[in-house]
Design brief:
With 338 residues, the chain is an alpha/beta fold. The protein has 12 helices and 12 strands.
Length: 338
């Protein structure tokens, strides 16, 4: 004969507390003493009680499930944001439903899957420009969502993003203050809004220091010809270049050997050793054991992910709590390369 599953009443009887106290302990709501919570948890373990989430969902109308959709895992920022999101979700005793997507069609598919599981909200880590359509769709279903992006757009709703223009600006200012007057900007897709923002910061800093814009020092990332050939051509026609701002970590990894192949070295001594200073506009991974260490942007991805999750959860628990946008101003992590 099958053993009868223990109930909340059984747990309450074993712990010598009320059923209401057990419910509060299970839901994390209400105030119960540490001593009472320990008695309840001990009773749960002894009886082998398993909470009926379906019943809890029927009572509250909520599943506690949050869809976390991430646009690929190649970017270090996305991994950091995911870490922050999971930390916050765990802290608030919610459950994350993580799915990865690469294309717009895959994103739509992941949203449909999550909706079938009755998620309470969405957290989307992406730099795509389809945010507004998704917000409109989910708002019509009364399901909140927040976006986390490595670039912030001034007109974007419900997004925690990095101020990409500021990234380009502080990197350029830093190099100019270090005595560099001929600074190249390397990498990034010409159609990328994130790249456009970073370039705008680069141009703004040049203008503020009365330095002439030279578009021949700007190289977009493309397959043909290879980036190494473009770097060689750049240094051949403009040997006075003493610094390079790299769009992202992938560009940085390609630029370093390309500079070395041209007989130049990476570093801060642009006068005697003819070093070329490098700054990466993304945070370099701890696993990138590159010498010299690379000066880079601190994207604060973990904190941004945590903030976005926190906002979403507060709104899920109280609809009067607004979902607002926030633009993070990055800082430089100073290494040996600049």
């Amino acid at each position: 004969m099958a053993r009868k599953k223990p109930t909340i009443s059984d747990v309450a009887k074993r712990a010598e507390v009320s059923a209401a106290a057990v419910s509060m302990a299970l839901s994390g709501k209400g105030r119960i003493s540490k001593w009472t919570a320990e008695r309840i948890n001990k009773a749960i373990d002894e009886l082998g009680y398993v909470r009926n989430n379906n019943a809890a969902t029927l009572r509250s109308g909520k599943t506690g499930l949050i869809a976390v959709l991430v646009h690929g895992l190649k970017q270090s920022f996305n991994l950091e944001a995911l870490q922050g999101i999971n930390s916050c979700i765990d802290e608030h005793k919610k459950v994350s439903f993580i799915m990865i997507f690469e294309t717009q069609a895959e994103l739509e598919n992941r949203i449909n899957i999550a909706l079938n599981y009755n998620v309470d909200g969405f957290l989307i880590v992406s730099d795509r420009d389809s945010n507004e359509n998704i917000i409109t769709r989910l708002n019509a279903l009364n399901i909140p969502c927040m976006f986390v992006s490595s670039s912030a757009r001034s007109n974007q709703r419900q997004q925690i993003g990095l101020n990409a223009l500021h990234s380009g600006s502080i990197a350029t200012h830093y190099l100019i203050k270090g005595g560099h007057m001929h600074i190249a900007f390397i990498g990034g897709d010409q159609k990328s809004l994130d790249r456009a923002e970073k370039l705008a910061g680069y141009f703004t800093a040049l203008k503020e220091h009365d330095l002439k814009e030279d578009t021949s020092l700007i190289i977009a990332d493309s397959q043909q010809p290879p980036l190494a050939e473009k770097i060689a051509s750049l240094l051949s026609r403009s040997p006075w270049v003493t610094a390079m701002i790299c769009y992202d970590t992938a560009t940085t990894r390609s630029v370093i050997p390309a500079i070395t192949c041209c007989g130049r070295t990476i570093g801060k001594d642009s006068y005697i050793n003819r070093d070329i200073a490098i700054i990466c506009l993304e945070k370099m991974n701890d696993s990138d054991f590159i010498s010299p260490s690379i000066t880079c942007i601190d994207t604060s991805g973990t904190q941004m992910g945590w903030n976005a999750a926190r906002q979403l959860i507060l709104h899920m628990d109280n609809e009067n709590h607004p979902l607002y946008s926030e633009a993070f101003h990055p800082a430089l992590i100073i290494g040996e390369s600049a």
